[in-house]
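Quarterly update from the structural biology core.
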Amino acid sequence: MVVATLAAISCGCAGKNGVRSTTVVPQTQKPVAKEASREELLDRYNQFARSIKTLNATVELKPIAGSRYSGVIDEYHEVKAFLLAARPADIRMIGQAPVIGTTVFDMVSNGETFEVSIPSKHKFLVGPVAAERNSSKPIENLRPQHLLDALLWPEIRKEEASYLREFNDENARYYVLTVLRGGYQTEVLREIWFDRADLQVTRLQTFGPKGILLSDVHFSGWQAVESPGGQNAQSTPVNGTLSFPRTIRIDRPHDDYQLNLQVTKISLNEEVPADRFKLEQPAGSELVHVGDATENKQP
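Predicted structure, tokenized:
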């Protein structure tokens, strides 16, 4: 009986009520796991980081604030946003309400300080980028530099130690490049996930002291971007081709919010005048200093 039962299972004789089902993946859809060394992946990452100097994009932006841990999850309507970014640390994002096109927010950062204008609340927020004091309302923790870290990647320096490992699941195979933070105590600084089907970066995790996960960014839909022309165009990769992901999801677990970006239009490495990153306080708005113990306010 045991032999007959095993034979029936192995042959699939139990029919649709059996314990096994088989799916045959067509040959044309079978992914091939590419091989790459740690040095090759470091070079691939750094080539992308070095090649993008400026970014000008239009995106569909959908924020999600809160989580099961906070007890409340707020999903906001999609807004149309205009993004400008330039190395080393300038970024500006303007969000507009759909259909009517009124400005929902306007925010800038230069890497040291940030400014956020919220016309509907007649408020103008300013503060240091390094401020760690979070708002009780997660959506108010959104900072422009959080997008900068996801869009303009920092280059991995030669003195930064790194190691490589594999990670496999039922859907894909990955290389995970771990970059360490040096100093008295060695800690993980960054983990970069490469999909071995095409060696594109699909995930970028950034860690703070004591292993805190600051940012978890997912990338997909990589597409080629036409290289800018003219004498004002800046450098492009050696192979002359630039690619950029069209779908980006930014998770900030300790800031308790998530951003979903769908890139609808993008240009890279065009000159951006410095005054495009200037944001003046609107007349009649309330000035709020974020990060102060009492959040001092001035008229």
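The two ends are 87 Å apart (CA to CA).
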